[in-house]
Amino acid sequence: MDIRVYRPGELSTADRAAWTALQSKAHLNGSPELANPFLSPEFTLAVGRCRRGVRIAVAREDGEPAAFFPFQRSTTGVGRAVGLGVSDCQGLVHRPGFTWDAQDLLRECGLAVWEFDHLVEGQRPFETGASGSFASPVMDVDQGYETYLRQLRARSPKFTRTTLAKERRLGRDAGEVRYVHDERDPAVLRTLMDWKSAQYRRTGRSDRFAHAWINHLALQLFHTRSESFAGILSVLYAGGKPVAAHFGLRTERVLACWFPAYDPAFAKYSPGLIMHLRMAEAAAADGIAYLDLGRGQKEYKDSLKTRELSVSEGWVTRRHPVAVGHRARRAPVRALRNMVLSRPEFFEPADRILKRMGKIRSIR
């Protein structure tokens, strides 16, 4: 096996095509999780235009590409998953039966450590370094939207009935409800980003769109379109006005939910839930197998999901002082955060404090 590391601009057209082909065949080969848009070459290349240190390791067997490992590397050899913090799926994209040694791979990549927070299932050489696993809910629509809706009604009859009733009430109160699955107006994307920033501040969370590189990344991906990958802006309108929107990424079989938000003035109608049902209907019509709602405990995800995937966080390391120092700094922070998120007696008071702080900041 030959492993070579490339900068994003050095990756050949043939290698990009081979990478996409591995993803396209992932469902047939029993590894549908590898078809996630965050594991696509388009996502890695887009991050590479916004951030330094993005690299792609290509493993070849008999001269043919067998695996692709995207990562970000610092000058000291600290490695991170590409887009760590905004990427909801990470790992090595490979052909069936491919095996690798994590230590050897890190050595070839010039890494002392590689950190991840959404490692896809089935990556055993990396999973040995996982410090925790977390649920990532999905909405299965491969049997069609009507089948999904029928299952939703059976599992959560009150939720389904209430959400559909709110859609009808929204139409009566605000005007005709219209859904656009693939909105191409960048001004609406800007509206979504403004809503999301306000939501982050209101709930005391870090505002991702306060970072210029994330804005540039989202805009790049919005304009990225091919048969195998696209940035999808979905919008729910009422009376000709956008009331909810979502920007996500899709491959041929997976729609990764990324940035959903809505106009708080319409909160009583639950426009975000209405939009997700419309998204599921349109995705099913487009041949999507499932919508990945992403890691995180949210009531709306529990209501909409059909099952859960599992993603892991942690790091793999070599015997190196840089790896020891990095782990010593990061481990306590991750452990504390996960303890707060996993225990209601800690999470609920912390969440209230963050929301209160967010309101204070918005007033100022």
UniProtKB/TrEMBL annotation:
Origin superkingdom: Bacteria
Nucleus listed as a keyword: no
An annotated Gene Ontology molecular function: transferase activity
Domain (BioF2-like acetyltransferase) ranges: 160-301
Species: Streptomyces fagopyri
Protein's name in the database: GNAT family N-acetyltransferase
Keyword line: Transferase
